Each structure stands twice: as C-alpha cells, then as structure tokens.
C-alpha cells in the first residue's frame, strides 16, 4: 500500500469512529439530524450504513413535519425571545462603585 493510501485509510477509520460516536442506537432521530448536517460532506447512504439506520428512514424523517412538542418548543423560544429582548435592552452599564461622592454619569445632575 502506498503511503498516501495509508494516510487516507487512517483518516477514513478516524471519520468512521467519529460518526459512530455521534450516534446512539436508541435514538435514530439523533442519527438523522447528524446525517442532515453532514450530507454535504458525505453520501447519505454511506452515513446511514455507518450509523446503522436506513436511508428510507432518513428520507421519511426529513419529509415528516415537526412534532407537536417541537412546535411548542419553537413557539416558547420565540415568545421568550420577545420577552427577554426588552429586559436586555433596558440594562445599562453599572455606575462607579467607589465610595465617596462618585456619581453615576447616566443619572441626571441634581
């Protein structure tokens, strides 16, 4: 085997182990989400084979609408973002914390 081939083979073995480590067999949805992220770099069929899920399962998962729970989670994130944004915008830098007659530059003069 040529040295370039050995390097490539070692890289492929390392990639395979990384892919396997990213997948838990009890949760195919996690494998499908990983495949969704990596399908640009690798063939879907190869990713499915390495992760132990079926390509048809992946394509069915991809076509399926989000679950009611996922939709509720998304709605919560949007709503909490609308609530938290004004709170964050109201915050201002803390004034000087030294003792004496140091004044907060953001407060009007008396």
Q: What pattern of helices and strands is seen along the backbone?
A: HHHHH
Beta content comes to under 5%
Main beta sheet, described?
Answer: none
Structural class, from secondary structure content?
A: mainly alpha
- In angstroms, what is the radius of gyration? 26 Å
What level of helicity do the residues show? 55-70%
Q: Globular, elongated, flat, extended or rod-shaped: what is the shape?
A: elongated
Q: Give the averaged pLDDT, no decimals.
A: 78
Number of strands: 0
Number of helical runs?
Answer: 5
Q: Unreliable stretches, pLDDT < 50, 5 or more residues?
A: none
The termini sit apart by 84 Å
Protein described:
The structure is a single chain. By secondary structure, the chain is mainly alpha-helical. It has five helices and no strands. Helix 2 (28-38) runs antiparallel to helix 3. The longest helix is centred in the C-terminal third of the chain and has 23 residues, at 68-90. The protein is elongated.
